[in-house]
Amino acid sequence: MKWFQKPQEDGRQSEATYQTYAATVLAAARLLASLRRTSPRSGSLLERECSRSQELGHPLTLLQLELADWPRVLQSLGEDRASQTLEELELVLHGTLRNTDILLTETKGSFTILLPGTTAQDAPTVMRNLRQAIHGYRILAPDGTAFFLRLHPWIGSASLPEDGSSAEALNQVLHQRLEAQKHLPTPLPDEAPTEKTPPLRLVA
Fold first, then answer.
1. Helix 167-182 to helix 42-56 angle, to the nearest 10 degrees?
2. Which of 123, 139, 190, 135 lies closest to 25, judged by CA?
3. Residue 147: count of CB within 10 angstroms of its CB
4. What pTM was computed for the model?
5. Nearest-angstrom CA–CA distance, 46 and 70
6. How many helices (H) and strands (E) does the chain have?
7. pLDDT over 60 at 38, yes or no
8. Fewest CB atoms less than 10 Å from the CB: which of 26, 82, 101, 173?
């Protein structure tokens, strides 16, 4: 995320500096959330983008990202901190996308992403970047304890024109592919909570 970087360490980094950094991240996430609340619904937005892509003859890819670990995050951190984590994750995902891409939070732990001009062949690269960004994120509890809970995203995709030319057709294909991923084994957590407090990382 080039427009917002973690403060550089020079020896021992003070706790106050990290608290200021985390507070700035949260403020930016809340600003994005307020902008999102004024945006159109995802359904009408997808219909509009499908029509635009057909008129211009451009491809369009729709992604759905769900966090397989979200129930575990809720259990470990509680509702309030989990909601803040979701806002931070939105910033993480924004950092991997272009300015023309559209990111919407649908439900807790679930994101819809519209990628204008992205083909079905390009979609795996975007999905890989999203996975790497999520894997690089670390949850920081209010007391400064770092929770090394590896987050595993399910990501489904559908593209225009390969998978259909309407919002309904894309959503149907997307749902089928996402459900297929959910039947695959989810990797077990490979890290455990620790008393050490490493720097807060937004991207890998």
1. 120
2. 139
3. 18
4. 0.70
5. 26
6. 6, 6
7. no
8. 26
Q: Which residues contact 18 (CB under 8 A, 6 or more apart)?
A: 7, 144, 199, 200
Higher pLDDT, residue 159 or 80: 159
The number of beta carbons lying within 10 Å of the beta carbon of residue 105 is 19
- Contact in structure between 160 and 53 (CB atoms under 8 Å): yes
Cα distance between residue 46 and residue 125, in whole Å: 21
pLDDT the model gives residue 120: 96
Q: Which long-range contacts (CB under 8 A, 24 or more apart) does 114-118 make?
A: 114/45, 114/46, 114/49, 114/60, 114/61, 114/62, 114/63, 115/60, 115/61, 115/62, 115/63, 116/49, 116/52, 116/53, 116/58, 116/60, 117/58, 117/59, 117/60, 118/59, 118/60, 118/61, 118/159
Is 65's pLDDT higher than 80? Answer: yes
* The two three-digit tokens of residue 145, written as one number: 């304890």
- φ/ψ of residue 161, rounded to 5: -100, 0
Please state, rounded to an integer, the average pLDDT across all residues of the chain. 76
The Cα–Cα gap between 135 and 153 comes to 9
**What letters, b where the CB count within 10 A reaches 16 and e where it falls short, cover 160-188?**
bbebbeebeebbebbeebbeeeeeeeeee
Residue 158: CB atoms within 10 Å:
24
